[in-house]
Each structure stands twice: as structure tokens, then as C-alpha cells.
Amino acid sequence: MRADRLLHILLLLQNQGRLTTRQLAGQLEVSERTIARDMEALSMAGIPVYAERGAHGGWRLSEQYRTRLTGMKPDELVSLFISGQEKALEDLGIRRHFDSAIQKLLSSAPDTVRHSAEDVRARLHIDGAGWHQADEQCPCLPVIQEAVWEERLLSITYMRGEEAEERTVSPLGLVAKRGVWYLVAATEHGMRTFRISRLAAAEMKEESFERPPGFQLAQYWEQSMADFKAALPRYPAKLRFQEGLLDGLSRTRYVKLLHMVQTGQEIEAEVEFNTMESACGIILGFGPGMEVLEPQELRSRVREQAAAIAALYR
């Protein structure tokens, strides 16, 4: 484990330049004292690592110390950067191995290839989690992609229902989530996310813009998704259902299981839906194996819908 960590430290310093003890400890999930011991071990082994003092100091690796491998093409390295499925890597417990592999690939690539791949990673994020696959038409995607790469202002016409909204934005990155493309951009009102299929027009301007210092596309997207989920409406209810329905209910979108008590083959659970209408549709989909206990208005709505369905097929 320590040998792997020492190699990872070398790759991080080689690829990212100066890093503080705190930054290294955070990336490797160890204590700062452990990093200090590791740096001492590297130095004693003859590796040219040294510390820079001051407010902007940190650990550095001598510029002359670099391991290069050849044969990695820019498009090949880029394809690996965008192939990582965050949720799957976390579920399998191999996220750190993926990050380590990326660092090794970066260290083996020539400077021009490495910088190209890092630019892509800063401007393109692939989110494979959660939503269903979609297939949308995005005729504006090529010009948006060019504006993102060239760091040029973008004039867009965005459709909100039947209303067209025109604005000029600074395109910072593209996000693909299950076949749906999004543009993350800085606007006069702050950071915004635009669904590209809803753009009626897009024109790249001559003017360029400066990317916000320290902006991380993947980090922004994850926080944006967390904020979106937190803002969804909540409709609490209490259900009784057969044990065999638990797996299906737990995998249903817009249903959150809060608390469960099992008695024999039956489970009573406190859950959260988004709205009463969506709750009614979901519950009816599980048939007679699920019963609403609370609230009364939801019991009544399910009963009315069930009666209407029975009357239709009578």
C-alpha cells in the first residue's frame, strides 16, 4: 500500500506541479503526518523532491525528473478521460484506482498530449448516473463545442416553452447525461445550465472571455444536481406492502424510503413522493400488494382511480 502511495505522490507532483502537504493528504486520504513521512522516504531514496516555503509554497519534483512513455495519441487519452462512470466506480470501490490510472497515463504522455487531455477534462463531463436514456436533436452542439474550446462568447436563443429568450453567455463546459447534452455557462446573473436541445440558435462571437479561476466542471455539476434534488417538492406518505415489492419500490424514481418496519411478509414504510398525483400513479402501478395508510387524501385518490379503472374494464 505504501509503495502505491509513494508512486501516486510522484505522479501527482509530476502532473500537477506544486502541491501542499494538505492537498496531497486530501487526495490520498491520509494524514498530513503520513505525507511528511512519505516525502522523507522519497528524498532518502534519491527522488529529487523538495519543499518551497512561503504562502504559495509546497512540494515540488525536479523538472529534470520525468518518466515518459510513447505511443499514446491525444484522442485515445481523451476517450479514457470521458469514459469514467463516477457512480459505477464508487459502487465498485475502485474510484481511487481509476484516478491513479489517469495519473499514470498523464505522466506517460508528451506535454502537448497531456495539456490537450487536461483541457478536455476541464470542459467536458460525462454523467452516466440516474436518468433514462434519451435521444435528442442538438443542431447547435457543434458551434457550442467550438465556443467552449475557443473560449469565445456565445449568443444563444433559449426556448422556455413557447417563449424565446436571447442572451450572451460565457460557455464553460459541456455535460452529457444519458444522451442529453447540457451547456454550463457564466451569465450576468451567475452560473446557469442550458439544455442544448432547447436552443433554437447559437452563434459564436469574436470576443473571448476568461474562465473563472479554479472552476471545476464536474464539481459544479454534482453540486447543481444535489441542489436540484433538494429543491424537488416532497409529499410524505405511509404505506403497507408485500415484502416482494420492496426492491421495485426502492428503485422507483422520485420515491424516497425514510423508515421501514417489517412484520412477517409485510412492510410498513414512511416514504416521500414528489406530489400526490405522482404518488397515486406509482402506488397503482404496484397493484393490490400495496396499500396507502396515510394521508387520507391519498387513500381517497387511489380508491377513486382504482374504481374508475374497474368501471372502465367492467
TrEMBL record:
<feature type="domain" description="HTH deoR-type">
    <location>
        <begin position="2"/>
        <end position="57"/>
    </location>
</feature>
<dbReference type="Pfam" id="PF13280">
    <property type="entry name" value="WYL"/>
</dbReference>
<dbReference type="InterPro" id="IPR057727">
    <property type="entry name" value="WCX_dom"/>
</dbReference>
<dbReference type="Pfam" id="PF08279">
    <property type="entry name" value="HTH_11"/>
</dbReference>
<dbReference type="Pfam" id="PF25583">
    <property type="entry name" value="WCX"/>
</dbReference>
<dbReference type="InterPro" id="IPR013196">
    <property type="entry name" value="HTH_11"/>
</dbReference>
<dbReference type="InterPro" id="IPR051534">
    <property type="entry name" value="CBASS_pafABC_assoc_protein"/>
</dbReference>
<dbReference type="InterPro" id="IPR026881">
    <property type="entry name" value="WYL_dom"/>
</dbReference>
<keyword id="KW-0804">Transcription</keyword>
<protein>
    <submittedName>
        <fullName>Helix-turn-helix transcriptional regulator</fullName>
    </submittedName>
</protein>
<dbReference type="InterPro" id="IPR028349">
    <property type="entry name" value="PafC-like"/>
</dbReference>
<dbReference type="InterPro" id="IPR001034">
    <property type="entry name" value="DeoR_HTH"/>
</dbReference>
<dbReference type="InterPro" id="IPR036390">
    <property type="entry name" value="WH_DNA-bd_sf"/>
</dbReference>
<dbReference type="InterPro" id="IPR036388">
    <property type="entry name" value="WH-like_DNA-bd_sf"/>
</dbReference>
<keyword id="KW-0805">Transcription regulation</keyword>
